[in-house]
Write a structure and sequence with these properties.
7 helices; five-stranded mixed sheet; 272 residues; alpha/beta
């Protein structure tokens, strides 16, 4: 079996942001971001999935995906894994199977959401989103005091997490920091979908006066979901990915990361 598409994961690079901490206020700083890019997985040149990932060891990701989806039963069924030669960004990978292996594509549980394999990259993914959802208009402002109040309010309402310690949470707040709805789920994207679904049922959309807080990191998909609901401000208790920051800066969304008791990083929006 030939594996020719692996490389080690590495940070996207340094980005100038604004940090806020108690007693010091805002200051300029450089921040390292984890890289996030889409990977299109092909089998015999046919697209079977696009997934967001940190570049590196893409051959292993593709092989593992095919195994867990039931397309292959072992490594001996793979003839070769190669990067798509016409994709300069390295975001398309092709898996070639042994001649005796038959593939039932109808059994796949994931679906391609980007159709242009030759142009697939982070920018293409962002452009595709803006083709469906409008950018945030107007200027949203949230004070440091309100940002810092959100995690404590969310933690106090995480009943299942307090018992199990194993769930993600997503919460909607108004711009004054008042909790609107909180939901928990083993999947952080599911938790976000739940609070947005609740708001949809309540007739609140678009959520132009809301803040979304997530208990984990902020990814491209989290920012995309927030924009789809019209949410102008997103906060995460952990780090944002590189593509999440790119997305927020183009969408006009406020993006805060590493939101802790007395500090946070502001990656997008709200100038002094």
């Amino acid at each position: 079996m030939s594996l020719t598409a692996g490389r080690s994961a590495s940070p996207k690079g340094r980005l100038r942001i604004r940090k806020w901490s108690a007693g010091k206020g805002f200051r300029q700083a450089l921040d390292d971001l984890a890289e996030e890019e889409p990977l299109e997985i092909q089998v015999e040149t046919r697209s079977v999935s696009v997934t967001m990932r940190t570049p590196g060891h893409d051959d292993e990701l593709a092989a593992g995906f095919l195994l867990t989806e039931g397309i292959i039963r072992g490594a001996n069924e793979i003839a070769a894994i190669r990067a798509y030669p016409r994709n300069a960004q390295g975001n398309v990978i092709n898996v070639f199977l042994k001649p005796e292996v038959s593939v039932d594509f109808a059994t796949l549980t994931r679906h391609v959401f980007v159709s242009s394999s030759c142009g697939l990259c982070g920018k293409a993914s962002i452009d595709a989103v803006f083709g469906h959802f409008p950018r945030i208009r107007g200027r949203t402002r949230v004070t440091p005091e309100i940002w810092l109040s959100l995690p404590k309010t969310m933690a106090a309402q995480q009943e299942t997490f307090a018992r199990t310690g194993g769930l993600h949470a997503a919460a909607l707040f108004d711009l004054k920091g008042q909790l609107q709805v909180l939901r928990e789920d083993v999947g952080r994207h599911n938790a976000v979908d739940k609070v947005i679904g609740y708001a949809l049922h309540q007739g609140w959309l678009p959520l132009k006066e809301s803040i979304l807080l997530v208990s984990g990191r902020a990814s491209f998909e989290i920012m995309q979901k927030a924009l789809a609901a019209g949410i102008p401000a997103v906060a995460a208790v952990s780090a944002p990915s590189s593509l999440a920051v790119q997305f927020a800066r183009r969408s006009g969304q406020l993006l805060v990361g590493f939101l802790r008791e007395d500090r946070f990083n502001l990656y997008s929006g709200q100038k002094p």
